[in-house]
Amino acid sequence: MRERAEAVAQQVQKLDTDLGLDTGLYAVLAGLDATGLDADATRVLERTLRDFRRSGVDQDETTRDRLRELSERAILLSQEFSKNIRENVRSIRLTPDRLAGLPQDWVDAHPVDDEGLVTVTTDYPDVVPFRTFAHDAQARRDLVTEFLTIAWPANDRVLQEIFAVRREHAALLGYASWADYDAEVKMIGSGKAIGEFIDRITELSTASAERDKAVLLERLRQDRPDATDIDGADVSYYAELVRKEQLAVDAQKVRTYFPFESVRQGLLDVTGRLFGLEWSLVPREDARTWHEEVATYDVSFQGERIGRIHLDLHPREGKYKHAAQFDLARGVAGTQLAEGVLVCNFNRGLMEHDEVVTLFHEFGHLVHHVLAGRTEWVRFSGVATEWDFVEAPSQMLEEWAWDSDVLATFARNTDGATIPAELVRAMRRADDFGKGYDARTQMFYAALSYDFHVHETDDLTDRLRELMERYSVFPHLSGTHMQCHFGHLDGYSSAYYTYMWSLVIAKDMFSAFDHGDLFDPEVAGAYRDKVLAQGGRRDAADLVEDFLGRPYTFDAYAAWLAE
Prior knowledge:
Oligomer: single chain
Mean pLDDT: 96
Strand order of the largest sheet: 3-4-5-7-6
Low-confidence stretches: none
Distance between the termini: 49 Å
Helix content: 55-70%
Radius of gyration: 24 Å
């Protein structure tokens, strides 16, 4: 199935490339008289002509042929990169006593084999709890090291070729770098601005980052008095201890309030109430899904069916390893209903609260896709805004997973007790711990994404180590090569900065809501209609300004970071 899908994807890419380099088609569209076109049609024409230019349609025949070769090579490299990550699941094997600290339900789900050992894999449902709760420092280090060397060394070679293809592609079109080419159609506008943004966020977050790292190091020294620094093998574990011991939040207690089925239904209820949507479960025999665990819902707004969603939320062998939303069909008013898929890898039992936040985040993309699926032009349907804005609505929806009144509607333990408001407030305080060093880590990832596409380097791991030293507050873990399984180097190319860029905007948009009543129908309705439902009909900056009544600023983000 995957091999067939890859073959079809190659055909689609070839068709897309051929269309973009079709001089006859370009001549027809370039010769159109735009007089009398409405705003949406004018925007379609402008964007289409821009796409043709960026495809290289106006280059000489030799250049067009080379661009076609590069495009076809790029899709093959992308598929190879993803396949290497997907298939290189690593593991460690431990005696049961080395699982001390792990939640009991996690331990129960990892039986001892015939040799008296337990296998712990690098899949997220294993590695996230293990590095957070396992008391055995060497076992944590061993697993994290395996996790950060997934697809090494195979993907190191693939990445070098991906970067080379992109550099040549941009140069043939007259751009100084791939980052400049890629940024031209984003809010940020230029490659230079990416570097400036990374440095600005780094500066804003440094004081908070160093303060919280010092707390982690002090706690580590209680166990290892001679410790001089703390790295990725210990950060999650000691951050959890600090939250539990100093901030009065026990993640293992918190997770008892989040059984998966309750969270999924709670998410549907919350977003339904917020945006005026109705979710109707579709019987499996009518849904025609690819696996029995996929849940399908029809989506209605004001009594009209506007789309369908599929939730594929648990891990299985060979499945995509991360969390993401995918389109099945982009909606067009009166012609085609929007249809989307959520693919995640959550436990079937109790969820970490971080997983709940992730589910809200990814579901935000799905809501955006469906609500913006009633446009006249498929070009503007769904999550069709500039790429450095698309995360903002999802990041903003995360806020509803942190509100005590919202969580009280579905977060209950097996005794039926609702999660206490004071616990939620403590969780929020605990979550704020580390936001500075998290921002610095994100800027390290963003710098990696940007730098690899702008500067040619013989040794990617050496350059990664240099960038980590400059942007992250944590040292490189010896013997690891995380670039090889950093999937965003393929999908986001030079634009990983977009997560933080959109968070800045998300914090600003969230400031328009009454934090005492996150379901205020007037504000929620304005946000739904002026931002989400518009899709790509207007520039993102204009959508945000229409909703806020002013241009977006860094103020709300800076204030949050300083709290």
